[in-house]
């Protein structure tokens, strides 16, 4: 286990707005809940989730930074970009469950959006397995496999896994919409799921967790550019949270330091030896080099 496995010396986001505070008990609650979920596949199956430092920082920023008066969350929209195989989908599922079971939103509607039916079925299966391990909550949950829907009866709140190829869902009253892999979704679907969402609830959250996309005219590219502008200070939006893990266009893609810059879970979820094997193949195959740069270093839009 590498030294960066756990977050140390957390400091609230530099984008914490005037009039907002960091409420540690809110952040601790969110971190405690997620850390006690169980992984469902591979060598991690049955083990505690245990947030990696980049994940914990995001959880503490989004769930711990609130307005001083009403203690509602500052950030209403968030864009998180990280290359494939860094634990993005499991992280998305954990946040969806956190919002459904512990956010105390009566009648809350949480939608977890995926790129196609296969991904939606896999996500539904993963969440169902996680819930089966949560004995304290599982007895209060009704499962509808046909709709890929979990209803938490004490709050009449539900979590539904949505396939982006399904008919559009205009007019929903979402407490949260989470996009797992926006690079595989189109603009119309994104807009249908988010239209009016931030108006109807007290502290809604539209969260995008994605890897870099290919379509320069797509919604993922647009949202990424907006996110980069927020990070650079070109745009000031205190309700928008941004975190991008990617190599820059002028970075040396052969340097392992750059691999770590782009892959915050490297050495934890993905062994460095496996990354080296992928790199060796990329050096010998120009087409695979393009794949390596895009999918493992996030250089698509750099």
Reading the helices and strands in chain order gives EHHEEHEHHEEEEHHEHEHHH
**Percent of residues in beta strands:** 15-25%
Largest sheet entry: 8 strands, mixed
- Give the overall pLDDT as a whole number: 91
Strand order of the largest sheet: 5-6-7-4-8-9-3-10
Q: Got a strand count?
A: 10
Count of DSSP H/I helices:
11
* Shape estimate: globular
Instruction: Please estimate the helix content.
Output: 25-40%
Sheet/helix structural class: alpha/beta
Low-confidence stretches: 1-5
The radius of gyration computed from the alpha-carbon positions, rounded to a whole number of angstroms, is 19 Å
Q: What is the first-to-last residue Cα distance? A: 31 Å
Brief account:
With 302 residues, this protein is of the alpha/beta class. The chain contains eleven helices and ten strands. The chain has helices at 24-35, 53-64, 88-102, 117-133, 135-138, 187-194, 197-200, 219-232, 256-262, 272-284, 286-297, and strands spanning 20-22, 65-67, 77-81, 109-114, 141-144, 149-152, 157-163, 176-180, 205-210, 240-244.
Report on the architecture of this protein:
By secondary structure, the protein is an alpha/beta fold. It has helices at 24-35, 53-64, 88-102, 117-133, 135-138, 187-194, 197-200, 219-232, 256-262, 272-284, 286-297; strands at 20-22, 65-67, 77-81, 109-114, 141-144, 149-152, 157-163, 176-180, 205-210, 240-244. Helix 1 crosses helix 2 and helix 10 (272-284) packs antiparallel against helix 11. The two termini are 31 Å apart. The protein is globular. The protein has an eight-stranded mixed beta sheet with strand order 5-6-7-4-8-9-3-10, sandwiched between helices. The protein has a two-stranded antiparallel ribbon with strand order 1-2. Mean pLDDT is 91; it is low at 1-5. The longest helix is centred in the middle third of the chain and has 17 residues, at 117-133. The protein is 39% helix and 16% strand.
